[in-house]
Amino acid sequence: MPLKPIAVNHGTEKKIYLLKPRGFCAGVVRAIDVVKIALDLYGPPVYVRKEIVHNKHVVDELREAGAVFVEEIAEVPVGARAIFSAHGVAPEVRRQAAERHLEVIDATCPLVTKVHLEAVQFARKGYSIVLIGHSHHDEVIGTLGEAPESSYLVETVDDVERLDLPDPAHVRYLTQTTLSLDETRDIIVRLKKRYPLIQGPPAQDICYATENRQMAVKGVAAYCDLLLVVGSQNSSNSKRLVEVSLNAGVAAHLVNDYAEVDPAWLCGVRNVAVTAGASAPEYLVEDLVKFLRERGYHQLEEVELIEEDVRFSLPAELSRGSAALTTISVQ
Prior knowledge:
The protein has 331 residues and is α/β, with parallel strands linked by helices. Helix content is 36%, strand content 19%. It has three domains: 15-25 and 207-304, Cobalt-precorrin-4 Transmethylase, domain 1 (3-Layer(aba) Sandwich); 26-109 and 314-329, 3-Layer(aba) Sandwich (Rossmann fold); 111-194, 3-Layer(aba) Sandwich (Cobalt-precorrin-4 Transmethylase, domain 1). The strands form four sheets. It has a five-stranded parallel β-sheet, sandwiched between helices. The radius of gyration is 21 Å and the shape is globular.
C-alpha cells in the first residue's frame, strides 16, 4: 500500500498520478557517476564497454562529455582506461581487458555482482544452474559467462519443460535482476514442480528498485486509465513496468521522452499514471508532466509506495583516486 491514501479522482478534471519511487536507482546513479568522475579525474577519452546504463539520453550526454562507447574490449586502445557497464561482464571480458593492459574501472551494479558470485558458488559445489532471464540482455550474457558449462537459460515457463539437466536432484536457480515479479514467480513455480529439490539464492535476485517500481504500478492501477513509462526500448526493467500495467488491465506505453507520446493515447483518458524505469533521468519525467499539463491534466498527485534510501560505494579504482567521493546516494 502507498504511504498515504490515494485521492480518487471522481470529478471530471484530468489528473496525473506521479509514481514514486521512479527513475534512477542506486546502481544507475553509481554507474553514471563513475563515468563522470573518471572523466573529471583522468580527462577524456574514457572508454565504456556497452551502454553504461540502458538509456539513450544518458548515453548521449556522457558521449558529449568525452566518454567513448564501444561494443567490445578489442576496440579499446592498448593501455587505455575502460569502464565496465552496470550490467556486468563475463570473466572472458576481464581476461581480454588484462591482455590489453587496460586500466579497468568496474561499474557493475553490486546487485548484479551478487548474482555472479552466486553462480560461481553454485558451480563450485557441482550444481546445475538454471538462470531465469532474457537471452540477449547484457546482464544475462555476463552471468552465463561465470559458469557456462553448468548454466541453463530459461525465458518462459515453456522453456522449463525443455530442460534436460544431468542431475535433477542437484539444481539451483538464479534470476536476472530486472525481471517481472509475476512472470518470474510462474517460472519458479514450474521449476519447483519439475525439480522438487531445486533451491534459489538466500535472498531474491530481482533488485529492490525493480520490485518497488512494479509494486507502485500495481498500487495505482485501480485509479488510472493509462500508464506512461519513461525509459528506453532496450531497458528491461522499463519494459517490465509496461507488462505489469497491461496485466493489471491498464493500457500502457513505453516512451523515450514526451515527444514519443501519441496524442491519440490520451483520447477519453481522465487519469494518467506516470513513472520511469531505473535508468531514466528525472528531467524526462518533468518534461512529460509539463506535456500532459499543457493538454489539460492540471491535477497532480505524487503516489509514494515506499521510501528508498540505498547507497552504494564507489569502485575501489575510483575511491582511491577521489577519496572525498567514497559514497553515492540516490537523491
